[in-house]
Amino acid sequence: MKQRRKKPRTSTVLLFSLILFIVGLFLVSYNYLIAKKEKIYSTMNLLLYEDETPKNIETKEEEPEETNEPVPERLADIGEEDKTITYNYIGILEIKKLNLKRGFLDIGSPYNNVNKNVTLIENSTMPDVENGNLILAAHSGNCWVCYFDKLYTLSIGDIATVTYNGYKYTYELKNIYNVAKTGTVEVRRDPTKTVLTLITCTHGSDTEQTVYIYELINKEKK
Fold it and tell me: What's the whole-model pTM score?
């Protein structure tokens, strides 16, 4: 005589279905949660950087002494509150070694801001000014506007170019040094040279910034 197979109880079926639903929901949402975590992490990095970013520019000029040592310039904070976005680039910075090619804007543009772009620092001079200093700053680290995140891999002798007003200016990296985050940055450069200065946070440090000094070696018509 055959025995009848007992049917599973309704409560057991419901419990099993609920477990499957929870597991499925977890698997579907896992990647989304990871993505959100990364986005939050990047934003936090940016906010931490902003807290230590200078906000005003102050230039100190000194008479050069009879020495080969570079004459320092004083450079203060480089941040600014974001306003209206515009894209009217006046020049392009390119470092082929880093696959970096970014435009920069006029000093008066509301989009000339480290929270949005490579930033032209107030009191900079354009590349066509003899013995001038074009100063650009950007974030480094893990954020979507960290355009200078690979600068730490540069070496003395590396090349950068700036395209401006129909000319291409080629610069050679001459000096790299770190400074403490104290609200000012000391720009050490030879005042008899036309230079490009790049500034960003020091790789692996929360208390320092790194300054890269380039000197002009060539100018050609585009």
Answer: 0.66
Name every residue whose Cβ is closer than 8 Å to that of residue 62 and which is 6 or more positions away in sequence.
71, 72
User: Which residue type sits at 200?
Assistant: T
Instruction: List the beta bridge partners of residue 160.
Output: 171
Instruction: Confirm if 132 and 73 have CB atoms less than 8 A apart.
Output: no
Euclidean distance between CA atoms 184 and 106, whole angstroms: 22
Q: Is residue 23 part of a domain?
A: no
Within a domain: 155 = yes
As given in the structure block, the two tokens for residue 78 are: 């480089």
Counting the structural domains of the chain, the total is: 1
Indicate whether 15 belongs to any domain.
Answer: no
* pLDDT 10s digits, 89-102: 999 999 999 999 99
Q: How far apart are CA 98 and CA 212, in angstroms?
A: 14
Instruction: List the Cα angle 116/76/191 in 5-degree steps.
Output: 105
Q: What percent of the chain has pLDDT over 90?
A: 46
Strands (E) located in the chain = 71-76, 89-95, 100-105, 119-120, 133-137, 159-164, 167-180, 184-189, 195-201, 208-221
Task: Please give the residue range of the domain that contains residue 91.
Answer: 52-62+70-221
The larger pLDDT score, comparing residue 105 to residue 39, is at 105
**CATH code for the domain in which residue 160 is found:** 2.40.260.10
How confident is the model over 40-70, as pLDDT tens digits? 333 333 333 343 334 433 333 334 444 455 5
